[in-house]
């Protein structure tokens, strides 16, 4: 379907690829991995012919259709959610809207209605519509939303509509760049199972390891040291094992060559002045000159481990909600909600987008006043609320490093630099002023501040956003050792599986407690079978 041959690309003075090779076969599922900045998005753009390589070729099958989901969507204009999902032409939109108008007026006997209906059917509209509706429902849309204009929704929901369009179109090669970013846990579960039965080839960039484990059959790694594409057979977990074995083989080859070089050099140094050995000495000198030297392999980056300070001990009852009611205007979110959180709980909040997960977290944090009921906080409870948009606690004049050191006066500078590095703040990044940081950088910096001076009740809303896989693992390591109380929202299954001991399922104002982690919740809720996933 697609063959990359001797691909070379230099960007900003740095060589990303040198004579790189890669093949995508029909029906193959591939994850493209590599550290941030290795060239994953650049390779995507070259495959899509949006950017030219400096050398080599990218050959595409003339009959293969490629579909691409970018991380950001454009302006949807006046299109409805359903129209985007159906991917219909302006001509089809005209017929569809004419039909809707006649149906609303009750004038379906009008010849204009019959003409619009015939033309819509001729353009396969009636086959596209039920498929689009099924996929939109799987991705979390309610039926009442189908005919609303897409621009009424948030960017994340617009992205879901464009994702639905791709799935309806069913291209031969489906290219996905971080497709799970805008999905809640239940929509992600549906999407994952849908892709497991997808008939075409898939090439994805993702930071969700469980998602990749479930979908992909091959992993292609961009090796930034060798500037090449290295293929591994198997899912992401298998790739990690193979990569470690490959590194050990490279280390052994490097050591063996050095040993061989030392042996030749020792012979040369010993017999350089011995006339009877002159021919052998010259032979070995020429051999060493011609030898292709193996560069010392760089160890794969691993999750950062650090002994974070433990929070002060809270009392047994950390926080309690009694008969809490909460509404936004006419929309009732919670009524008579009772919830008790105790010391040491590790709780994940799950449920569809808009169910009230973030609202509950804000109520617990005290940042959202409740309309009714009582919020009772334990006398020794120290709060820490991490939201995706938290930046007000940063001193804009401080550098990143100064901000972290100010958060924990006992922290050594070298430890602070190491922690920041594990959360994607590279060498010179730590000298940036907080005032010039992007939204993602501010979120990551606040995350580091929580970890170096943790409260005993940590409330976290999507803490893995803006992190790569190894940074997520570093966060998991830190929170596993955390002795306080944790309540969090996440759609990263690997993160949830490693941390959650209790699951609160929130839907239609009801909060159902499952005294177990993610897999226990799936089993007891019936979401671990195909039927449950499709209707979630």
Short description:
The chain is α/β, with parallel strands linked by helices and 536 residues long. It is built from 18 helices and 18 strands.
Give a written overview of the molecule.
This protein has helices at 40-47, 81-86, 90-105, 111-122, 125-138, 155-169, 185-196, 209-215, 236-271, 278-290, 357-365, 400-407, 413-422, 439-452, 469-480, 493-499, 518-525, 530-535; strands at 2-11, 14-24, 29-33, 55-60, 66-69, 173-177, 201-205, 218-223, 228-233, 317-328, 331-342, 346-350, 372-377, 383-386, 457-461, 485-489, 502-507, 510-514. It starts with a strand and ends with a helix. β15 (457-461), α15 (469-480) and β16 (485-489) form a beta-alpha-beta unit. It is of the alpha/beta class. Residues 530-536 have low confidence and may be disordered. It has a 6-stranded mixed β-sheet, with helices on both faces. It has a 6-stranded mixed β-sheet with strand order 14-15-16-12-17-18, sandwiched between helices. It has a 3-stranded antiparallel β-sheet with strand order 2-1-4, with no helix packed on it. The protein has 3 domains: 75-170 and 190-199, no CATH class; 240-290; 317-535, P-loop containing nucleotide triphosphate hydrolases (Rossmann fold, 3-Layer(aba) Sandwich), CATH 3.40.50.300. The protein contains 18 helices and 18 strands.
Provide the gyration radius in Å.
28 Å
CATH homologous superfamily name of the largest domain?
P-loop containing nucleotide triphosphate hydrolases
Tally of helical runs? 18
Tell me which CATH architecture of the largest domain applies here. 3-Layer(aba) Sandwich
Distance between the termini: 34 Å
Binned, the helix content reads 25-40%
The whole-number mean of residue pLDDT values reads 88
């Amino acid at each position: 379907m697609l063959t990359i041959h001797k691909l070379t690309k230099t960007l900003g003075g740095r060589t990303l690829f040198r004579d790189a090779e890669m093949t995508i076969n029909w029906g193959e599922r591939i994850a493209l991995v590599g550290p941030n900045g290795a060239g994953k998005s650049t390779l995507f753009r070259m495959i899509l012919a949006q950017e030219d390589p400096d050398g080599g070729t990218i050959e595409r099958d003339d009959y293969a259709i490629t579909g691409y989901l970018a991380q950001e969507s454009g302006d949807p204009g006046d299109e409805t959610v359903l129209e985007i999902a159906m991917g219909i032409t302006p001509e089809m939109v005209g017929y569809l809207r004419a039909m809707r108008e006649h149906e609303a007026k009750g004038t379906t006997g009008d010849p204009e209605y019959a003409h619009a209906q015939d033309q819509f059917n001729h353009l396969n509209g009636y086959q596209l519509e039920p498929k689009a509706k099924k996929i939109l429902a799987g991705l979390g849309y309610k039926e009442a939303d189908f005919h609303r204009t897409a621009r009424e929704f948030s960017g994340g929901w617009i992205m879901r509509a464009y994702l639905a369009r791709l799935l309806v179109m069913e291209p031969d090669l489906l290219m996905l760049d971080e497709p799970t970013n805008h999905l809640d846990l239940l929509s992600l579960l549906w999407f994952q199972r849908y892709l497991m039965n997808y008939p075409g080839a898939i090439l994805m960039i993702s930071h969700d390891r469980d998602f990749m484990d479930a979908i992909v059959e091959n992993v292609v790694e961009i090796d930034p040291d060798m500037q090449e594409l290295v293929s591994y057979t198997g899912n992401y977990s298998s790739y990690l094992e193979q990569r470690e074995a490959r590194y050990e083989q490279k280390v052994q080859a490097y050591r063996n060559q050095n040993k061989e070089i030392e042996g030749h050099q020792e012979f040369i140094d010993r017999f350089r002045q011995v006339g009877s050995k002159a021919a052998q000495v010259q032979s070995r000198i020429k051999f060493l000159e011609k030898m292709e030297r193996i560069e010392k392999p760089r160890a794969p980056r691993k999750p950062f481990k650090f002994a974070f300070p433990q929070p002060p001990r809270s009392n047994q009852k950390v926080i309690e909600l009694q008969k809490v009611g909460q509404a936004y205007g006419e929309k009732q979110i919670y009524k008579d909600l009772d919830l008790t959180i105790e010391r040491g709980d590790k709780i994940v909040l799950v449920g569809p987008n808009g169910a009230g997960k973030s609202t509950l977290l804000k109520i617990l944090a005290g940042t959202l006043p409740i309309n009714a009921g009582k919020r009772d906080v334990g006398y020794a409870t120290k709060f820490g609320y991490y939201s995706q948009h938290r930046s007000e606690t940063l001193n804009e004049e401080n550098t990143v490093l100064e901000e972290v050191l100010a958060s924990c006066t006992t922290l050594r500078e070298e430890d602070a630099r190491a922690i920041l590095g594990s959360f994607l703040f590279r060498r010179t990044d730590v000298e940036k002023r907080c005032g010039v940081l992007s939204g993602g950088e501010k979120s990551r910096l606040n995350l580091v501040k929580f970890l170096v001076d943790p409260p005993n009740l940590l409330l976290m809303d999507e803490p893995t956003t803006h992190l790569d896989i190894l940074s997520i693992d570093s966060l998991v390591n830190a929170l596993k050792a955390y002795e306080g109380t944790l309540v969090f929202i996440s759609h990263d299954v690997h993160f949830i599986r490693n941390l959650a001991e209790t699951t609160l399922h929130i839907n239609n104002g009801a909060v159902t407690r499952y005294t177990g982690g993610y897999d226990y919740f799936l089993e007891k809720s019936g979401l671990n079978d195909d039927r449950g996933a499709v209707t979630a």
